[in-house]
Amino acid sequence: MKLGIVSDHGGFELKEFIKNSLKEKFEIIDCGVDSEASVDYPNIINPACKKLISEEFPRMIALCGTGIGASISANRMKGIRAALCHDEFTAEMSKRHNNANVLVLGGRLLGKDLTLRIVDKWLNTEFEAGRHEKRIQLLDSL
Predict the structure, then answer these.
(1) Which of 35, 43, 61, 91 has the fewest Cβ atoms within 10 angstroms?
(2) pLDDT tens, 52-99?
(3) Strand runs (DSSP E) across the chain, as ranges?
(4) Are 86 and 57 in contact (CB under 8 A)?
(5) What is the largest CA-CA distance in the chain?
């Protein structure tokens, strides 16, 4: 399965770690950046979201220093449901109830072990649908 990944400079180091950790299980599509040189996160996050929307890959992980900017930027785009997660529970619920198609992480906030647990939980949780489907439809109609 294809998995998109993108970061600004603040998430670069953790993005590279995630890529290397998942490359045996997924076809990783790296949407940038390729260094810790300062960039403006909307200029990196939003083109990656366009690739997700156009179905170049079904899910994506986005990172910036805190995850806040990446989350705000991604969620400005129709069809994106980006969830900023800090633990396994928020990762699980972001998929189970909200069908998040973007997992957002703070590159300067999370340790590597916790990051892998969050990513694993998010990738392996299914959307419950049911009563939550109506809410996703409401979001999509905005």
Answers:
(1) 35
(2) 999 999 999 999 999 999 999 999 999 999 999 999 999 999 999 999
(3) 2-7, 27-30, 60-64, 82-84, 102-106
(4) no
(5) 44
Domain of 32, CATH number, reads 3.40.1400.10
Question: What was the pLDDT predicted at 141?
Answer: 84
Token pair, residue 136, equals 């996703």
Q: What confidence tier does 142 reach under pLDDT thresholds 50, 70, 90?
A: confident
Query: Is the pTM higher than 0.85?
Result: yes
Instruction: Provide the sign of the torsion angle of the four alpha carbons 70, 72, 74, 75, taken in this order.
Output: positive
Q: Which two tokens stand for residue 55?
A: 């179905």
Report the amino acid identity of residue 58.
P
Exposure string (b/e) for 54-64, b if CB count within 10 Å is 16 or more? eeebebbbbbb
Query: How far is 34 from 13, CA to CA, in rounded Å?
Result: 10
Please give the positions annotated as active site: 64, 97
Q: What is the pLDDT of residue 81?
A: 97
Q: Which helix (H) or strand (E) holds 75?
A: helix 68-75
Beta-bridge mates of residue 2: 27
Work out how many domains the chain is built from and give that number: 1
